[in-house]
Every structure is written in C-alpha cells, then in structure tokens.
Write a sequence for this structure.
C-alpha cells in the first residue's frame, strides 16, 4: 500500500486511529503495571531485613502510596492485647487514647473480625474513632482483618479523606496482602518473644534468690506475651503479689484475687501442666480488679517442682482480647524457665544452709578444740615423733583404733609409707618446710591409710620441728581426722556444680568453665566451641508418660552425650531439656566434624525404657568463639541462635553460627 | 485578619551588613506592625552566623526559619546564583507559628521528622487547621523518610510544603536556620496553626513519553535495572537514542529534559531526575530513588510545558483563600536549567497570578508536598502555600 495514493483526510483518520490504538495500549500497560507494582512493592517491603518498627513503617508507607490513602494503621490485638495500633501514619498522636472502655473494646473486636468497609455509621459508639473520623474528615475506610497462620491477629486499616471509595479489586488485593503482613508480623513477633525469653533466661537463670526470681518473672511476663499486668501466686506459702506499674513497686494481691488463685490451683488443666486462659464474654463475664484497673482477660501458667504445683504465673489484659495458641506456648516456655530458675535457687539455698550450718559447727568445734588443746593434747588425735629422715620414733596409742595397728609395728618405718600416692608431694614438702623452720607449727591435709585395706582417710597433719629441743629431739606430728568434714565439702562442691538428675555439669559450672576457657583461649590464640541443643517434644513425653519417664529420658540423653564426647570436653544440662557441650582448643571447625557427625547420628535415636520406645528429636547449634571478641553470653547466644536455625532447617541437623543468622 | 508580608533583599558582600539591610527593608514594609515570623532565603556564600546576626539585629527575637538555596524569589523577582539574601517578615494575621529544628539528622530521618513536627506543633499550640513548612539539608539522605516522620505527626489535616536546602547545586554543604542558629546537617519545621483551611498546591508540567516500566533493581541512589534490563539501556531506548550514546559527560544535558515519573494510582506522576549513568549501566538518581517494584515512565518537558503550570498553581492557591497576603513558593533548582533565560518568567507569572499577595520563596534541591498517600518528596516541581 502506497501512502502517496491516500487522500490527506484518510491519512489523518488513519493517524488518529493509530494514535488511539497506541494510547489504549499504553493505558492498558499502565493499568497492568499499577497492579503489578502493588504486589511487588509490598512483597519487597515485607522481605526487607530491617528492625520491626522500620518494617511496620515501610509497610504503611507502601500501602498508603499504593492505595492512595491518607491514613493507615496496623492493629495487632493478638500480639499486644489492646487496640492501640502498633504502627500508624496520618493520625495525630493525641487522637489515640491509652485505654478504651469495655463496650468500645467489644465493638472494636467485632469490627476487626468482621471488616471490611467500615463506614462512619459503623463506628458510632466508639468515641475516639468518631473523633478521628470527624477531625480528619475521613470519607471512606477499609478494615482488612490480619489473619495469621492460626487466627485473626488484628486489622490493617486504610482511610481516605476524599470521596474515593475503595473498589472490590482493591479490597481483594488488600486482603491477600494482609495475609502476608499478618504472617510477617507473626513470625517477627514470635522470634522477638523467643529472643526476649532467651535473653531473660540468662538474667533470671543467673539469679539465686527465689524471691528475686519471682519478682523478675512478674515484671517480664506481661512484656513477653503482650499483657498489661502480671502477678505471682505461691501455692505453698499461700501468698501472691503483683507489680504496680504506677508506683514501680511490688504489692500484695488483694484477698479476693488470692482466693481466685487458690481455686485455680485445683483446676484440672492447671494440674495437668497446661496454660489456662479466661476471657470476658457474654456467656462468661470473667473480670478481676486490682491496682486501679479491671482486667477482662487472663492467662495463668503453672510452675511445678518435683511434680507438685508450687506457683502460678499470671498475665492480665485490660481488654477482652484472648491469648493466642502461640502466645500460650510462649507463656508455657517462659514458665518452664522460671521453674528451672526457682529450682536452681531452691537447691542453692539448701546448699547454702548446709554450708552455713557446717561452718557454724566447725567454728564451734575449732573453738572447743583450741580450748581443749590448750589444756591437753586431744587424745583422739594421733601424736607421733619423727626423726629428721621421716621415720617414726614414737607414735601414740590412739593409732590403734584409727589406723588399726599397733604402735610398735609402725616405729622405725617412714611416715610416707602410709600416705596416699597422690599426696606424697604434699607430705614431702611439709617435711621440707618443717625442717627449714624449727619451732614453727606447719600443717597440711593429706590422705593416709587408715587400716590394712585401701581405706584412705583425710588427716590434718600438724608438725613442729623440735629436733633441737633436748627433751624431744624429733618432729612432733599431730594427725587430726577430718574425713567427715572433707566429705561434706566435696558433696557441697558436687551439689554446686553438678546437675543432680543427670550428673552432668550444671548451668553455673558450665558458664564458669566457658568463661575460664575463653580467657585461656585468648591467651594462646585459639578458640572454644559451644554446642547447644534441646529435645523436641520433651513436654509431650512429660505430659503423656509423667515426670519420672521425662527424667529417665533426660538421663539417657546425658549418658549418650557422655559416651560421644572426649574426656576433656564438658557437657552440661543447661536447664530443662537443654544441653550444652564445651570444646576447648579449637583451631578449625573441621576438628569438630567427626564429633558432630557422631552426635547427630547417635543423640536422637529413640530411647528404650522397659516397654516404651520414645522418639526424641532435636537440633544442634554450634558457635565458635572469635578470640578477644566473644564472652560467655555472646557465645551461648550465638549457639542458641544457630540451634533455632537448625530447627528451622529440619529436625536432626546441626548449624554452625555465622553472622548472617542475626536477624 | 489578613496576614501582611514585608520583603527585603540585599546583595551586599558582607554577611552581617546584607542580613541587616534585607531585614531592615522587610520590616520597613510592615509600617510599624509587629512581625511574628521571619523567613530567610540566601545564597550559600555568606558566613551564616554573621548573616543571622545581621537579620536578628533588626527582627530581634521574632521566630526565624530559613535555608540556603539555589536562587531566591522576592515579590515576583528571580534572584539567581550569587545574588544575595532575601528576608520575608510576616505579621501573625490569624495564624500562630511554632518552629523546631534538629541537627545531624542523617541516619535517623524518620525520628527527626517526627521530632521537629511534634515540637513545632507544640510551640504553635492546637488549632482546627494547620500547615507546615519543612526545610532540610539536601545531603542528609533519603528525605522521604524525614517527610514520612513529619507526616506521621501532622496527618492529612496539615498542608505540608517546603524544600531541601541547596548550595547553588555544588552539593558540598547546605544549611537551614532556626532563630539565631545555622543548623548543620539539619531540618527545620515551621508549624502554622490556623482557624481556616490552608491549601498547598503542587504541579510540575512534565508529560509521559515512554511506555511504563517496572524498577526491578534499585539500591541507595541507583536504579540498576528497569524491566529486568540494565537501567541505562532501557532509559536510552525510551528517549529514542541508541544504547551507549549517552556518556557520563553528556548525560545530564539530555536527562534533564527526560526525568522519570513514578506512576501513582490516581494517574499522576511524581518526578525523579536521573543525574548520571555509571559504567555498569546503572542510573544515578537525585535524592529519593523509586523503590524496587515501582512503576515508572520517562517524562518529557520544555520551558513552555513547565512554565504552563505556574498560573494554575497561583490561581488555585489563592482560590481557597481570598485573603491571601503571601504565597510561599518552593521551585526545583532543576527547572531553571530547562527554562534557561526564561527563568525569571516563573516568579513573574506566579506574582501576576497571585495579584496583591506577595510571592517569595526559594529554588531548592527537592520539594516537599504531599499529593498522594504518604509520598511527599518531588523533583522538578513547583509547590506553593498561600497564607
């Protein structure tokens, strides 16, 4: 076709037609791209690795721009327990109240669950919303429910101050996006809750006073699970207290709440070890009041000691907002940690009391001994006179009941013959010092053979060089049997540093060893590695088969750990079903490879207990110290983080910490 | 009560003398009425502390805000690079003013925006309507974050205008002013509490030429990919030249006529300027980069097209406020590059449209004005507020 033959008016018409077609195509492309950009922009914002508050701001700035909105707010009642937005833009701060009334909160709950287009008529009766709609001249708004993986968390609210209604397509797109937003919030909040628990675990775990642990738990509990107040009830002592935010002080629970708590201790769910929740509904108008507030929602987590319910840890919400299943799990986890901390503190107190009593007894004994010795040599002590070469010149008759032999048998022999091989050095040094220091009393503790068999007892040996005293011409030696005292000391050490159930090191000892190892490693420019693992579904084993089976399982796992680590490595029960292992002198991760393979292969095979075969699963996190950078807390935190990563990657794996794991 | 504006300018070389002279001329125009707000727009070559001392010698403790610029506007007259300083003094009229500033805002712009909005609002006190003039160091980073923070506090009931301080486009050091202080790497907000609605108007005069494209990769101040292809190649294709024809040396001379428009849902476009290309094919964007996933299209404009919006801006600004005493204008420093020797026309035509209201303002490196959603930073745009 030649254009030269076309009439000018036809050509113009052709151009108009082509231009129109081009413009239509361009408009179609623009429209398609606008929809694409809505989805991509929001996905990009959700996937950015930024702190939570920045993520929320990014979400709101993106949706306001993409949906031509003047106002946006995110309400997360499931996470926070109240109706204040966790993020908002375009609403002056003073328009949002700290608290809202009960009828208003019930209306808000209905709006959140119902959505979607919320007209000014629908918010009548909610005073602060009416004010916001009126003051900001909101003409149209959508409340998109934020449905997480389990349930509705809250709502994404978008509003326009102009007469431009949200279209069905926009609402549908927003609903799809809201699901992604809810999941992102859910994941981050869960991660934050766990991190909060991990960090609090360190704080609470390091406390050794039961009352301090309870107070710290009451302050922390509402923060972790998004509640307005916390309290504690002790079932044994029958007392309870709460933290008064206004006065920043702990106060006793009023008597009506105490009796409510007492009743709850008989609740079958609580006695089973489950978290119990109560909420104000039309059918069940639950409410309690203290500290000037009325609370409409409650969660109680039981704390057991040796299968006995000892305490309840409470959290209260002012609004009638229920605690989600996920929050209940977190509450249960935290209560478990508080339980372990209380148990440790309890054992510590027993050990302290024993130590104090023992010291008191010893002090009294020492005083009486001093008095007695001042008058006469203690006839139960063995008294001997030695020659300069250590041979026995004289030994008292008290040797007969204590060492089981006659003095005459011993005279002429060297004392060293009866000293424990491991204490020879001490005994030789004692003699050397005594010979060097005539007239001076010098003492050492050595083990000596007390009887014919291999029966070793501890003696406090006091020697005085009187070789130059013409009336003696020898070294006067007194042997005072301190075996019982020594045994108590050893037991106390064992109690202080061992986990009584598994026999592994306990948390305090493990932390101490890691600290010491890090100092040493820094000096010689090597690293230490820490392994962290816990058992999946351990709570299930405890719940289904009882605490005795749970304890036996823990012992079986501890035994496996012992079997597969080297003698120099230190394994500990860090708390509950958490275990840790310390490896020293690490130059390269390759060194650990065979060990890790062995652990992964053997640790999580089923445990056989008479007729039961229990599946135990778990994942392992490893962190290797960076010389002169890591301390105990940072190393443990890294190992812990690696373990959570390993869990996410699938059960029965190990993950080595790397900085990229930091969220 | 209608607000009165007194305007003065000086081109004296000594900073103190220039400040004193401009402020003296401005105050004289008020015929003895008490000023309630002082606005200072100046070239960057002065010693700023001495300049402010000179101004404050005349205006005393009257609240003061201002900025270094890339040119000033005074009663319809354009003062180009190196011309000097302008001082605008305003009586209170029916308004109450509050000023707040923050220094070293880079890295925490959102919080800084919230802080200066909150504090300036508190100083001005509550009112049914309000506006905010926002000015900030153009080198402080992604100023959209500053705007977002300010908007969080202000909300849709507050008209926000303003601009990013310039140093006559040297991009070395810019300042904003708060009372007697030249604020380093800072932002300043003037809150205007009002009994009647206030109106901000924004237009640019650019028109789309290319097909819409998706930003598939962008980071920092760069767009790396458009529609999955190297950004520079896609851009050159849109403006009808062969790939590689634009070099770092000749890029700006062409790209200033072809900025990007970020497509908004209401069909409008927010302008972003590509300053240069990198050897790897990325495009360097002036200030706020469109985030990945944004839909953009290449725009084109001429002196005629960008000047064509001036009357509309002026008329619309005073239409909502017949008692307008002053129009505060913030125009992009890039617009004179297009308007060339017709640059003075912009101020003249705006003054003509404004009638009796005095027009004053500045040329800036990025303008603040909320048009759609919470996006409030622009390039190559003219934005005004009528008081």
């Amino acid at each position: 076709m030649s254009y030269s033959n076309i009439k000018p008016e036809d050509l113009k018409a052709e151009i108009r037609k082509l231009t129109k077609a081009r413009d239509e195509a361009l408009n179609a492309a623009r429209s398609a791209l606008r929809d694409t950009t809505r989805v991509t922009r929001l996905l990009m914002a959700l996937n950015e690795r930024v702190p939570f508050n920045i993520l929320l701001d990014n979400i709101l700035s993106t949706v306001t721009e993409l949906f031509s909105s003047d106002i946006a707010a995110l309400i997360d009642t499931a996470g926070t327990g109240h109706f204040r937005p966790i993020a908002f833009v375009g609403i002056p701060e003073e328009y949002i109240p700290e608290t809202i009334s009960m009828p208003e909160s019930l209306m808000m709950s209905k709006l959140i669950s119902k959505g979607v287009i919320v007209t000014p008529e629908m918010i009548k009766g909610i005073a602060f919303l009416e004010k916001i709609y009126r003051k900001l001249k909101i003409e149209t708004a959508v409340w998109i429910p934020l449905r997480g993986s389990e349930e509705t968390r809250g709502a994404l609210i978008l509003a326009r101050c102009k007469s431009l209604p949200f279209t069905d397509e926009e609402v549908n797109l927003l609903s799809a996006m809201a699901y992604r937003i809810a999941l992102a919030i859910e994941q981050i909040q869960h991660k934050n809750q766990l991190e909060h628990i991990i960090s609090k675990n360190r704080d609470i775990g390091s406390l050794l006073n039961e009352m301090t642990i309870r107070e710290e738990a009451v302050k922390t509990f509402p923060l972790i699970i998004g509640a307005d107040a916390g309290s504690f009830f002790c079932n044994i002592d029958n007392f309870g207290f709460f933290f008064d935010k206004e006065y920043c002080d702990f106060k006793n629970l009023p008597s009506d709440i105490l009796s409510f708590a007492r009743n709850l201790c008989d609740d079958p769910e609580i006695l089973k070890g489950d978290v119990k929740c109560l909420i104000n509904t039309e059918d069940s108008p639950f409410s309690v009041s203290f500290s000037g507030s009325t609370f409409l929602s409650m969660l109680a987590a039981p704390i057991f000691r040796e299968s006995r319910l000892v305490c309840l840890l409470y959290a209260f919400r002012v609004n009638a907002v229920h605690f989600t299943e996920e929050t209940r799990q977190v509450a249960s986890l935290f209560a478990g940690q508080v339980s372990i901390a209380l148990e440790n503190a309890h054992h510590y107190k027993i050990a302290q009391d024993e130590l104090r009593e023992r010291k008191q007894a010893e002090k009294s004994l020492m005083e009486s001994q001093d008095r007695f010795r001042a008058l006469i040599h203690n006839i139960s002590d063995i008294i001997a006179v030695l020659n300069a070469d250590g041979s026995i010149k004289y030994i008292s008759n008290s040797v007969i009941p204590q060492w089981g032999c006659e003095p005459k048998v011993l005279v002429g022999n060297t004392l060293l013959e009866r000293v424990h091989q491991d204490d020879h050095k001490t005994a030789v040094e004692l003699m050397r010092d005594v010979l060097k220091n005539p007239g001076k009393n010098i003492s050492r503790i050595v083990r000596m053979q007390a009887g014919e068999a291999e029966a070793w007892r501890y003696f406090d040996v006091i020697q005085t060089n009187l070789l130059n005293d013409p009336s003696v011409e020898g070294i006067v030696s007194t042997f005072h049997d301190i075996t019982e005292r020594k045994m108590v000391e050893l037991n106390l050490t064992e109690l202080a540093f061992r986990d009584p159930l598994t026999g592994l090191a306990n948390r305090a000892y493990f932390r101490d060893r890691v600290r010491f190892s890090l100092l040493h490693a820094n000096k010689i420019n090597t690293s230490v590695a820490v392994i962290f693992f816990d058992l999946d579904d351990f709570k299930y084993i405890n719940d289904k088969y009882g605490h005795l089976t749970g304890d036996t399982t823990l012992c079986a796992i501890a035994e496996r750990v012992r079997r597969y680590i080297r003698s120099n490595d230190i394994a500990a029960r860090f708390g509950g079903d958490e275990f840790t292992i310390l490896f020293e002198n690490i130059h390269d991760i390759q060194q650990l490879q065979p060990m890790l393979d062995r652990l992964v292969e053997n640790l999580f095979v089923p445990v056989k207990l008479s007729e039961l075969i229990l599946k135990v699963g778990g994942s392992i996190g490893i962190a290797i110290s960076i010389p002169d950078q890591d301390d105990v807390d940072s190393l443990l935190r890294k190992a812990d983080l690696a373990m959570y990563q390993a869990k996410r990657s699938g059960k029965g794996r190990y993950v080595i910490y790397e900085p990229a794991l930091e969220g | 009560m209608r607000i009165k504006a007194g305007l003065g300018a000086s081109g004296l070389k000594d900073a103190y003398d220039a400040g004193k002279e401009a402020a003296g001329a401005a105050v004289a125009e008020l015929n003895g009425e008490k000023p309630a707000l002082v606005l200072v727009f100046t070239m960057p070559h002065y010693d700023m502390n001495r300049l402010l001392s000179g101004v404050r010698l005349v205006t005393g403790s009257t609240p003061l805000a201002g900025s270094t610029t890339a040119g000033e506007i005074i009663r319809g007259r354009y003062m180009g690079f190196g011309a000097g300083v302008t001082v605008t003094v305003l009586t209170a009229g029916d308004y109450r003013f509050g000023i707040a500033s923050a220094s070293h805002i880079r890295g925490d712009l959102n919080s800084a925006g919230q802080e200066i909005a909150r504090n300036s609002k508190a100083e001005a006190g509550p009112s049914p309507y309000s506006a905010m003039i926002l000015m900030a160091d153009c080198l402080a980073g992604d100023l959209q974050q500053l705007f977002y923070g300010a908007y969080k506090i202000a909300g849709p009931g507050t008209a926000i205008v303003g601009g990013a301080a310039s140093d006559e486009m040297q991009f070395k050091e810019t300042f904003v002013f708060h009372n007697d202080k030249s604020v380093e790497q800072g932002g300043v907000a003037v809150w205007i509490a009002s009994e009647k609605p206030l109106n901000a108007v924004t237009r640019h005069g650019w028109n789309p030429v290319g097909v819409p494209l998706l930003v598939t990769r962008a980071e920092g101040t760069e767009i790396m990919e458009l529609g999955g292809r190297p950004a520079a190649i896609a851009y050159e294709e849109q403006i009808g030249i062969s790939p590689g024809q634009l070099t770092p040396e000749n890029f700006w001379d062409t790209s200033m006529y072809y900025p990007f428009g970020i497509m908004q849902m209401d069909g409008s476009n927010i302008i972003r300027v590509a300053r240069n290309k990198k050897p790897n094919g990325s495009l360097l964007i002036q200030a706020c980069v469109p985030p990945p996933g944004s839909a953009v299209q290449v725009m084109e404009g001429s002196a005629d097209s960008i000047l064509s919006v001036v009357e509309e801006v002026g008329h619309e600004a005073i239409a909502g406020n017949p008692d307008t005493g002053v129009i505060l204008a913030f125009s992009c420093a890039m617009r004179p590059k297009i308007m060339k020797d017709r640059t003075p026309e912009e101020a003249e035509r705006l003054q003509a449209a404004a009638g009796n209201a005095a027009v004053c303002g500045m040329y800036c490196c990025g303008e603040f004005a909320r048009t759609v959603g919470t996006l409030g930073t622009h390039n190559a745009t003219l934005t005004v507020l009528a008081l």
